[in-house]
Amino acid sequence: MSMTVPQMYGSLVFNDKVMRDKLPKDIYKALRKTIDKNTHLEIDVANAVAIAMKEWAVEHGATHFTHWFQPLTGFTAEKHDSFISPVGDGEVIMEFSGKELVKGEPDASSFPSGGLRATFEARGYTAWDPTSPAFIKDGTLYIPTAFCSYSGEALDKKTPLLRSMEALNREATRVLHVLGNTAVQSVTTTVGPEQEYFLIDKEDFKLRKDLIFTGRTLLGAKPPKGQEMEDHYFGTLKPRVAAYMHELDEELWKLGIPAKTKHNEVAPAQHELAPVFDTTNVAVDHNQLTMEMMRKVAEKHGFVCLLHEKPFDGINGSGKHNNWSMTTDTGVNLLDPGKTPAENIQFLVFLMAVVSAVDKYADLMRLSVASAGNDHRLGANEAPPAIISIFLGDELTAVLDSIEKDAFFGKQEKVTMETGATVLPHFAKDTTDRNRTSPFAFTGNKFEFRSLGSSLSVAGPNIVLNTAVAETLSEIYEELKDVPAEKMAETVRELLKKAILEHKRVIFNGNGYTDEWVAEAEKRGLYNYKSTPDVLPVFVADKNVDLFTKHHIYTESEIKSRYEILLENYSKTIHIEAQTMVDMVNRQFLPALMETMDRAASLVAKKQQISAAISCKAELARIEKLSAQYDGIYEAVEKLAADIRIAEGMSDELGLAKFYQATILSDMAEVRVIADEAEAVIPEDILPYPSYAKMLFYV
Ligand code: ADP
Ligand code: MG
């Protein structure tokens, strides 16, 4: 029996339709109120919801439930409990209570807490997030939850995300009201994350320790062909890949994830999937699930899905484009330039709130995308530079320009909002050009933050965006709140002008990949944090601690703990990479090189036996060259190993991260340069793992 797509879509989700069908009317209403208005949920409501949820889940084959959460590992976590409850006589019934729905107590001692949770207090709590729907996967009912410590500190990515959405909601609504748009009761942020990934054959994967342990290749000569022909981009899907994508779509649809577009990317073996956007919180959960399903479905098709930011040197890496906007409960996209005058003023205010936020908190935005993996991409002419700037396109830039120069709002005329806005051009969606080099681009009715790495949760960047914009909106509110109606238009105009003057330095419509831009950005005073250890300390800078604490996103200790975890993760990641490289070089690569030389040497010996007059020139030349490379690699890998030991003796976390960045990574590069050169002449039957050519072109 095959299902149609509409039947399939959301069939495993406890969504609004199911809730309406299954819940008593008053319970449904109470739950809706909690979801839409963030009101407290009473336990009797929770009990009724739990019963309906369990019935629905059991009907769909579920035997277990789990609280599903997002600890600071960057992955999701779950602990399954069955619904069964013994009732004597060896019989069981299926039970699930409101208490079990609302709260869980996983033993959380092994999740990173950055010192927030004392070791004796291993308990963590998970709390149901009713704004993200529950779903069934592999016979288990998944309940999205937030994860916090005994004393209420957030230990996850969802809690601060929800807090940041609330902050933005509060500030945006106040600004709308003061602008006279009192119909709006709430504002939510929306996100559509485009996800890139690689598919390689499972058999190849299994032979590469580097991919297994680190997610990226640490060695590998360039294949004869790379991505220079750009023939893979939007190319025809190979049948095996098409079958994978088809099943992935179906699995995602069942989970209510609106997977929409799929295509081949620029690099060979690289692909992309984009969903239709959703409320930020749901989009974040869905992106986590999407990454998980990408991996899982790949296994079934004999593939491994690589989500690392830079699996292959010399080949474009993978990122994520975070499309972001703000929508009112009256259905208006606040970043849509729109047709009616009032919306245009509104649009300009919100546009400038975003521009100001990005300029003021560009350091935090850079921080929010920082990871060891993403350091290989940012600024490497395949992804946006590490410098955060905004692309607005010519039209919008011209609009701001004329506001700055009073061209639209001449002082002589009597200016009302209406006349101010009628002269604004209407921006058709696709008149904003594409600029792939910009980290933060206006794309018609939303912003696209393009610096994100492919493997990271999109929670972090959205926490920063929401909070920074909430802050600039709160400043706007402070300026406008006491202004009488008849003065409003003029005050808004002055405010916009001031904001433009102050923050236009962050607007850049040119090519972000050039050295000229790097120099220009420095002149403009923009941040340029080149690596993760460079940028991490901005997390604990006063201005940023003030921002987060003011809007109740993080407490000071939550910030400190997250900062520590980020530092630790960075160092650990590179530590593992370095160890893996030493292992591969000593136990696989150098032996392969020895064998290659041995083959040549034994041929020389055999030839000499036949006749001393036969030339052995080529063999000897090859041995000589390989021998020199062998020495070079040996020395470089010994240095790497020695430096790893130095790192192991260091205790200052920031110093350590910097040491990994400056010393260990360049040691690794040293090894790799010579090894990749030598690999090019190692016979294919001797190299104990698949080459780049094999992995990238034989799927
Ligand atoms: P492209 O980036 O190729 O122009 P689209 O404009 O269709 O493609 O959008 C790309 C992504 O942006 C999709 O995931 C889409 O759902 C999302 N998106 C569109 N509108 C919004 C919005 N208002 N808020 C957040 N994301 C959006
Ligand atoms: Mg896009």
Can you walk through the features of this model?
With 699 residues, the chain is of the alpha+beta class. It has three domains: 5-156, Ubiquitin-like (UB roll); 164-218 and 228-554, Creatine Kinase, Chain A, domain 2 (2-Layer Sandwich); 570-697, Four Helix Bundle (Hemerythrin (Met), subunit A) (Up-down Bundle). The protein contains 23 helices and 17 strands. It has helices at 5-8, 16-22, 25-37, 43-59, 98-102, 158-178, 202-206, 209-214, 239-254, 280-300, 341-360, 362-368, 394-404, 417-422, 459-480, 485-503, 515-524, 532-535, 542-550, 556-610, 617-648, 653-679, 692-697, and strands at 64-69, 77-82, 84-86, 92-94, 103-104, 124-128, 135-137, 140-149, 187-201, 259-264, 270-275, 278-279, 303-306, 319-328, 390-391, 440-442, 447-453. Strands 9, 10, 11, 12, 13, 14, 15, 16 and 17 form a nine-stranded mixed beta sheet that branches. Strands 1, 2, 5, 6, 7 and 8 form a six-stranded mixed beta sheet that branches. Helix 3 (25-37) crosses helix 4 and helix 20 (556-610) runs antiparallel to helix 21. The relative contact order is 0.10. The structure holds adenosine-5'-diphosphate and magnesium ion (MG). Magnesium ion (MG) binds at residues 194, 321, 448.
Mean pLDDT: 91
Outline, from the CA principal axes? Answer: globular
How many structural units, i.e. domains? 3
Indicate the percent of residues in helices.
40-55%
